[in-house]
Amino acid sequence: MAPNGNGKPDKRVCTAYGSEVRRLREEAGFTQTALARRAKSSKTTISDVERGRVTPSPQLRAELDEVLGKGRLSHLWKELTVSDGEIWKYEIAEMIDSASAVYEYEVLVFPAYLQTEAYAQAIIRQGAPWLPSAEVTQLAQERWKRSQRLAEAEQPKLWVVLDGAVLARRYGGPTVIAEQLKHVLRLVDHDRVSLQLVPPEEPRHPGVSGAYKLITTEHAPDVLVAESIREGHVVTNALEVAHYRMQFAALQGVALGPAETLTRLREEIKGLES
Description:
Elements lengths: L10 H18 L3 H7 L4 H8 L7 H12 L2 H11 L4 H11 L3 E6 L10 H11 L5 H20 L4 E7 L1 H4 L5 H16 L3 E6 L13 E6 L2 E8 L4 E4 L2 H17 L3 H16 L1
Parallel strand pairs: 1-2, 2-3
Antiparallel strand pairs: 1-4, 4-5, 5-6
């Protein structure tokens, strides 16, 4: 990307990189002080890196990758600084992590934060057949770990509406899909996730504009996020956000209720395992 006028990576790069450093540090169970000691740095520097306040030196990036990334942080830095690449994905992930509520409509797959590792691996493999198997596995593992962290957190509350086509797609085969559906049922049982399904036979389907999510935070305006394979479009215009809130309400209105949706999922599992 993304150097700025001084030839240095811009704020978005440093923020996305720092967010991933913090995530990997917490995943490894290190305090900032412990990481600083292992990376031959200081707690203040680690804190500044995680907050995106400074551009980490090549030496520090190498030390952090050795301690935390095992190649992941080096790959991320390259992705972030060569093009706009992955920045938007990390920015959206940060929005979700700090949100109080997320309202999401999906048309093809379960949202990433509801996916099992096997389901994620099947989707990534089919969607990016050029990736080597090792990278597919790594990406799926990272998605699964993030899914687990989000499931264990107290927020955000998740309201999800799925198009009926999601259940019709057998990514990874019957066993993978059955385990995916069981995983979703377990998450719904914990009252963090509300799930509704728009049945294929519903004639009044308002979700014709594609998948999107509405993200609500306590101290900032709501935002609308629409993602494509190459970019994420973030909308903060209050009127447009309000329009999609109306559409989400309309989707909930034509979808099966939460109890009926869970019944449909259990029926799908029974059919897959019979």
